[in-house]
Amino acid sequence: MDVRAILLIGGRPEAAGEHFTGVPLAMLDLLGASLLNRVTHRMHQQGIGSIAVISEYDQFPDRQLSHDLRWFKATNGQFWRFTEAVFNDFAQNGAELIVVMRLASYVAVDYEKLVQFHLDRHSRLTRACEPQGEALDLFVISTSRRNDAAFIFRNMLERFRVQPDMFPLAENQHRLQTVADFRRLALASFAGKTSIEPQGRQIRPGVWVAPGARIHRDARIVAPAYIGAYARVRARAVITRGSVVERNSAIDCGTVVENSTVLPFSRVGAGLDVGFSVVGFRHVFHLQRKVDVEIADESLLDMAPTSATARALSDMVNLALYMPKAMLAGLREKGREIPATLPEAIQAAPPSLSAAAVEHQDRADRHFAPELMAARRYGNE
Amino acid sequence: METSRPVVVKRVPERVNLKEAREFLRSVEPILHSDRPQLVFDLSHVRQLDSAGVDMLLHCMSEAMKRDGDVKLAAPSAEAMVILELTRTGRLFEIYDSATDAARSFSSFLPNVMRQFSAPEPATVSFPGTGVKAAASRQPAEKNESAA
């Protein structure tokens, strides 16, 4: 049987918050793989052949994504027309059933059972629901009912010509409508409350590390935590309280990442305190303050190129420029006058205490033995 | 306790990058070089603050402290607060909800931070029938024994 799928990202007015700096939440890595990647992988495993994604956003580079995935970018006005057109295209090309899913939540679905339920009921339209009965934006539509499908799409999956048969799922959905939901989903997955498994090896109880990740021996990783593929955690960095460092990210020396997610390709500067935030694409979204802050300063937060070649070139250029930069900095320092003694402001007593300080100094001189010498432990001065 | 020295409140611009930070520093330098400068930076309009801005704030604080003064922050915007927390500088400053509160704090004897940890008011003990009230205080055990 030819079963295909249409996955929808955005498309509704309330979907305005379902992205982080223009990248849909469903496309962001969550413990090593994006939600879209997990859903398509599962669909492929369970016999759904061709998958089309209709999104309001551009595709974010993800090498793990299946190559036969067709991506269509549609603006808000054309979104549902586009969906209808893709549905019709699938129907003309021989599809018998089409699974339509809006990626605004995560739930583990047994697609085989869903399709079988649809077939057993001789249903035109089947809709999945939570065990308690709350309906999800997940449908199975028979391609023979194109008018029904067109009606559903024109009403943004909210109204139907025929009442759908409800298919109860085994578990509740985890909403993914805000950045806070995204972070909550990561914590729920650490706690084993979802079927999402971190992509990597569990090196210690509660600490997962993906292949290629480099963690300095002086860095501290406190469980639960996840370090993605090719991520770098430098010396004295601390990753703690359910923090996630996604692929190709770098946490610089001494930085503390607490209860936060560092998105792919992010470079977090040295000596920072990242807490209760989702960090990436030169933005920090603070979950407690509910504010998105753009960081223009590269020393605080930067983004590595998403292409591997560009990343390698950038690293080479940085390496080549390191010595000249260091020499230039040295020359600049040479030109600057370095005071031989401590700055006056430190040595001099404040005006209000000057009399007392002078008196104290005199007393100190009197009690200091003249034959006593102070010497440095190291150095030849 | 009142002080006669003036408290200067300066509004920090919306974007504080290297250029803006230098300009701002130039404008506050005369105040910083005075004796015991008392400065309040109003951060309510700040939308973007980078490391140069944070560096400028720290420089102002160190300059003020060299001269026995202080710099306090008032009404920081959420964006400014995120950067201050991110760079671990928020804990170095006294931060107040409004510029008025910050300015008033200079004239109070104890800074607010200290007041949080100061000892509570001693409880009063009344002696029934006498109309006498006295402050109850704990004496060290040794002293009590020796007195006995």
Which whole number gives the mean pLDDT of chain B?
79
Largest sheet of chain A: 8 strands, mixed
CATH class wording of the largest domain in chain A = Alpha Beta
**Major sheet details of chain B:** 4 strands, parallel
CATH architecture of the largest domain in chain A: Alpha-Beta Complex
CATH topology of chain B: Transcription Regulator spoIIAA
CATH superfamily of chain B: STAS domain
Would you kindly provide a written description of the structure presented here, covering whatever features stand out?
The complex is a heterodimer of chains A (381) and B (148). With 381 residues, chain A is α/β, with parallel strands linked by helices. Chain A has 2 domains: 3-175, Spore Coat Polysaccharide Biosynthesis Protein SpsA, Chain A; 198-303, UDP N-Acetylglucosamine Acyltransferase, domain 1 (3 Solenoid). Chain A has helices at 35-45, 79-92, 111-120, 146-154, 179-190, 308-335, 344-347, 354-367, and strands at 3-9, 19-20, 23-24, 29-30, 33-34, 51-55, 69-73, 97-102, 105-106, 125-129, 135-142, 165-168, 174-175, 201-204, 207-209, 214-215, 220-221, 225-227, 232-233, 238-240, 243-245, 250-251, 256-258, 261-262, 266-268, 273-275, 277-280, 283-286, 291-294, 301-303. In chain A, α2 runs antiparallel to α4. Chain A is elongated. The longest helix of chain B is centred in the middle third of the chain and has 16 residues, at 51-66. Residues 119-148 of chain B have low confidence and may be disordered. Chain B has a single domain (8-118), classed as Transcription Regulator spoIIAA, CATH 3.30.750. Chain B has 148 residues and is of the alpha/beta class. Helix content of chain B is 42%, strand content 20%. Chain B is globular. At the A-B interface, β26 and β29 of A face α2 and α3 of B.
Brief sketch in words of this structure:
The complex is a heterodimer of chains A (381) and B (148). By secondary structure, chain A is an alpha/beta fold.
